[in-house]
C-alpha cells in the first residue's frame, strides 16, 4: 500500500489560485503540478468556506 502524500499550504494555495484567479482548467493545473486532478479538486473544495 502506498503512503498518502501530503502537500504544504503554499502548494495548495498556488494550485487553487491557478484555477480560480487565472481561469485554468483543473486537468491542466494538475498536469502542470504533477498530481492527479482529483487531488486538485479536493484542494479546491477544502479551501472554500462552508455555508449553512
Give an overview in words.
This protein is an all-alpha fold. It has one domain (9-47). It is 60% helix and 0% strand. It contains three helices and no strands. It has helices spanning 9-20, 26-33, 37-47. The longest helix is centred in the first third of the chain and has 12 residues, at 9-20. The radius of gyration is 11 Å and the shape is globular. The protein starts with 8 loop residues before the first helix and ends in a 5-residue tail after the last helix.
Task: Write a compact overview of the structure shown.
The protein is 60% helix and 0% strand. With 52 residues, the protein is an all-alpha fold. The protein is globular, with a radius of gyration of 11 Å.
Order of helices and strands: HHH
Counting DSSP H or I runs of 4 or more residues, the number of helices is: 3
- Structural class by helix and strand composition: mainly alpha
Which of globular, elongated, flat, extended, rod-shaped describes the shape?
globular
Reported for the largest beta sheet, the result is: none
What value does the average pLDDT take? Answer: 82
Strand element count = 0
Estimated radius of gyration: 11 Å
Ranges where pLDDT stays below 50 over 5 or more residues in a row are none
The helicity comes to 55-70%
Distance between the termini: 37 Å
Strand content: under 5%
> Total domains, how many?
1
Amino acid at each position: 500500500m502506498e503512503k498518502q502524500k501530503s502537500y504544504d499550504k503554499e502548494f495548495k494555495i498556488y494550485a487553487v489560485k491557478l484555477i480560480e484567479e487565472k481561469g485554468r482548467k483543473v486537468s491542466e493545473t494538475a498536469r502542470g503540478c504533477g498530481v492527479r486532478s482529483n487531488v486538485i479538486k479536493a484542494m479546491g473544495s477544502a479551501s472554500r468556506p462552508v455555508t449553512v
